[in-house]
Write a structure and sequence with these properties.
The complex is a heterodimer of chains A (196) and B (560).
Chain A: E1 8-17, H1 22-32, E2 36-44, E3 50-59, H2 61-73, E4 77-82, E5 88-99, H3 102-114, E6 118-122, E7 126-133, H4 135-145, E8 150-155, E9 159-162
Antiparallel strand pairs in A: 1-3, 1-4, 2-3, 5-7, 5-8, 5-9, 6-7
Chain B: E1 3-6, H1 7-17, E2 22-25, H2 32-35, E3 45-48, H3 52-66, E4 70-74, H4 78-81, H5 84-92, E5 97-103, H6 119-122, E6 129-132, H7 139-151, E7 157-163, H8 164-168, E8 170-173, H9 192-204, E9 208-212, H10 214-218, H11 222-232, E10 236-238, H12 263-271, E11 274-278, H13 284-287, E12 298-303, E13 317-320, H14 323-330, H15 340-352, H16 366-376, E14 382-385, H17 389-397, E15 406-407, H18 418-428, E16 434-439, H19 440-446, H20 450-455, E17 461-466, H21 471-480, H22 496-502, E18 506-510, H23 516-525, E19 530-535
Parallel strand pairs in B: 2-3, 2-4, 4-5, 5-7, 6-7, 9-10, 9-11, 11-12, 12-13, 14-15, 14-16, 16-17, 17-19, 18-19
Antiparallel strand pairs in B: 1-8
Helix pairs in contact in B: 1-7, 3-5, 3-18, 12-15, 16-17, 16-23
Classes of the chains: A alpha+beta (196), B alpha/beta (560).
């Protein structure tokens, strides 16, 4: 996904050993190149002793690929995949505290419903909403809520996974460009398949 | 069979199990508990360095010259930070090392305690891996992992930081516990399809060149390199760190290319139709301007580290594997060849671009010193160097007879490497002649290690190419800064002969060409460390030269 100046965002997924310092080792390789980590999500994986990290970085393709190769060299990193161009689903989550005095509360709740967000806390003057989905969906809700007065916006990093296969015997996330039944082919965008 | 031991004892037992017989280090508060048990382990020889950087470079010199893992000890805080240059040097040149540092007690970590430095944080980018061990129970497994990581795959330095109270804690040590590193893949044989593709290019090439890098030395594949080169009759260009991987008196030997390499080597690489890179990372000192590097050639890149492939140069045929394994796979697949015309052309390049001409002068030049060292020692010595003009003259004019006899800081370019690395090389090779070729600048960065040589009666010979200048700096300021010379002259060098005597060494001064051979022979005959102060011509530019970031088109051969 282009951010406007020839720099692309890439989504990298890493399976890492759950050990102190592993995040510093990984972020150090990006820091060395002067890259910004646009988003980062870390959590325990399905395998004991292993965590999965999903991070979105901004940098020229070939440099990001090289950094990914260097990541794979780290002892605590078990597996690294640049999944930007693969068939993935991804989600981000945001908690948005918005000013909502009685007079405009109805309007805020209407937007909440349209965006399939949840109200998770109600105060006298504010509502806190929870929304998950693709970045653009979250961005647009935040944009629309601005006029009411945003009190706090807290966003998580992106989490992503390869789509399950729809064709027997194929690897997960494989782009079925030549599949016999093209209706099974899911549209591949550069990472926006998590949108509404 | 698990043993119940104190942390320090676990460290020593694990080191012995790894085959360690010598350690270079300096004690300090946080590592004292480890020193407290050394007397129980007389098989662990401890050599007391005078500065932790010296300990690290000595361990590096020991490792490079023996192929074993070098070990250094240092205490917390400044002791540990003093290791950093040595670790960075080893990291850049893929040298197997394990550094063990003391750390403040566990309760004090993070409190800015006396002599506390976050050394695992500080050394993240200059180690292959590092550890902070918080339980004595984990010490044994950590040390075995560290040695496994240091010596396998692409080798490198590993640091283990141990809090003072972990050394004194009792713990379980199971020497036979298996190593469990799910994220660490050791590359062995290459994929057959990659080898096939490489063999096809080799068999089709008309003007092939082998570029032999440090990987050939590290994997100890010099025998295989020779077999491969002779079967295919392909000229061998070595990189700076590939020097001594191929006998220099061999008809196929074609020097080293790049910034200060032989012009004929750079031209051969430029004119080739195929470059077969064994274990070199296409360093910028060889490549210069990547867009104009050997544009007419296809490239095969054999490397153990997949992250090196296509890093600076795009290649047609990557081969990811251990060089030794790849040679075994590749040699049967390549055809015997002659390449008569190409080899004739290489001979022509060597004749037209001699590159190693020494100025005709009565004065004593650095090149004269190295040439005489090469002649008198018959190319049979282990050579260590610092960084600068003396290093390049050593690389150019010493004719190496033995494999793995050249120790130089290539990637990091660490001045001061020459003094302690020679100590490590001599400890690892007590029966060999070790000459350290030094500049007067670098020598003074680590000369305190002379005491280490004297104390251990290590007969290292130090050749100082003394021109009272930072020679390479002088040259660059002359070339690229309009002769605006700044901070390039040393006006207060000590009398190096008296310095030698002050340390209890033999000191010899040489000021003319006539004295060269006798002085070198005298140093060789002396059963102890020697400094020979070669007072060379003040300023002498080094050629050939390809300016940084340029290509062979900008090669300056020798204006004289």
């Amino acid at each position: 996904m282009a951010s406007g100046n020839g720099i692309f965002q890439r989504t990298i997924s890493a399976l890492v050993q759950d050990k102190p310092g592993v995040l510093a080792r990984i972020s150090g390789l990006f820091r060395r190149r002067g890259f910004n980590i646009a988003s980062l999500a870390v959590g325990r994986s399905e395998q004991p002793g292993m965590s999965r990290m999903t991070f979105v970085v901004e940098g020229p393709d070939e440099v990001v690929r090289h950094v990914a190769a260097q990541l794979d060299r780290l002892i605590d990193v078990v597996e690294v995949n640049d999944i930007t161009e693969q068939n993935i689903v991804w989600r981000e989550l945001a908690l948005i505290k918005v000013a909502a005095p009685t007079a405009i509360r109805g309007e805020v709740l209407e937007l909440t419903n349209v965006y399939r967000a949840n109200v998770i806390d109600i105060g006298v003057e504010s509502l806190t909403l929870e929304i998950s989905g693709g970045r653009q969906k979250i961005d647009s809700l935040i944009e629309l809520l601005k006029k009411f007065g945003l009190l706090e916006v807290i966003r998580t990093g992106r989490v992503a996974t390869l789509r399950g296969t729809l064709v027997e015997g194929e690897a997960d996330g494989l782009y079925q460009a030549n599949a016999s039944n093209p209706t099974y082919v899911l549209p591949i965008t550069t990472g926006e398949s998590g949108s509404v | 069979m698990s043993k119940h031991l104190g942390g320090s004892q676990i460290v020593c037992e694990a080191l012995l199990k790894e085959g360690v017989d010598v350690v270079f280090g300096i004690p300090g508060g946080a590592i004292l508990p480890l020193y407290g048990v050394l007397s129980q382990y007389p098989d662990l020889r401890h050599i007391l360095s005078r500065h932790e950087q010296g300990a690290a470079h000595s361990a590096d010199g020991y490792a490079r010259s023996t192929g074993k893992v070098g070990v250094a000890f240092a205490t917390s805080g400044p002791g540990a930070t003093n290791l950093v240059t040595g670790l960075a040097t080893a990291m850049m040149d893929s040298v197997p090392m394990v550094a063990i540092t003391g750390q403040v007690g566990r309760a004090a970590i993070g409190t800015d305690a006396f002599q506390e430095t976050d050394i695992t944080g500080a050394t993240l980018p200059v180690t292959k891996h590092n550890y902070l061990v918080m339980r004595a129970d984990d010490l044994g497994a950590t040390i075995h992992e560290a040695f496994h990581i240091a010596r396998t795959g692409r080798p490198g330095p590993v640091l283990i930081d141990i809090p003072k109270d972990v050394f004194t804690e009792m713990g379980e040590y199971n020497p036979d516990a298996p190593i469990d590193l799910p994220g660490y893949k050791v590359t062995g044989k290459a994929d057959e399809s990659q080898v096939e593709a490489a063999a096809k290019l080799i068999n089709e090439a008309e003007r092939p060149v082998i570029l032999a890098g440090h990987g050939v030395v590290l994997s100890r594949s010099w025998g295989e390199l020779k077999e491969f080169a002779e079967k295919t009759q392909i000229p061998v260009v070595t990189t700076l760190l590939g020097i001594s991987s191929f006998p220099e008196d061999h008809v196929l030997s074609t020097g080293f290319p790049g910034m200060h390499g032989m012009a004929y080597a750079s031209l051969a690489v430029d004119q080739a139709d195929l470059i077969i890179n064994f274990g070199s990372r296409f360093d910028d000192r060889i490549v210069g301007d990547a867009k104009r590097f050997s544009t007419g050639s296809k490239k095969i890149h054999v490397d153990i580290d997949p992250a090196e492939i296509n890093k600076s140069i795009q290649v047609e045929a990557p081969v990811v594997g251990n060089i030794k394994d790849v040679f075994a796979q590749l040699i049967p697949k390549v055809k015997q060849a002659t390449h008569v015309e190409w080899l004739r052309h290489i001979e022509h390049l060597k004749a037209e671009h001699p590159s190693l001409r020494i100025p005709e002068t009565e004065r004593l030049m650095g090149q004269h010193v190295v040439k005489a060292l090469s002649d008198v020692t018959k190319g049979d010595a282990i050579i260590t160097t610092g960084v600068g003009q003396h290093q390049m003259w050593a690389a150019q004019h010493y004719q190496f007879k033995n494999a793995n006899s050249w120790l130089s800081s290539g990637g990091a370019g660490t001045m001061g490497y020459e003094v302690p690395s020679a100590i490590g090389a001599q400890v690892g090779n007590p029966d060999k002649l070790v000459w350290s070729i030094c500049g007067d600048g670098g020598f003074q960065m680590t000369l305190m290690e002379l005491a280490t040589a004297v104390e251990n009666n290590l007969p290292v010979k130090y050749a100082i190419l003394n021109n009272n200048h930072l020679g390479m700096i002088t040259q660059w300021q002359g070339f690229f800064y309009d002769g605006d010379y700044q901070a390039e002259t040393y006006t207060a060098n000590p009398d190096f002969v008296k310095l030698a005597e002050a340390y209890g060494m033999k000191g010899i001064r040489v000021t003319s060409q006539d004295e060269l051979e006798s002085a070198i022979a005298e140093a060789n005959a002396h059963n102890g460390p020697v400094i020979v102060d070669f007072v060379i011509e003040k300023v002498d530019d080094l050629y050939p030269m390809i300016p940084a970031g340029q290509s062979v088109q900008e090669l300056i051969e020798d204006p004289n």
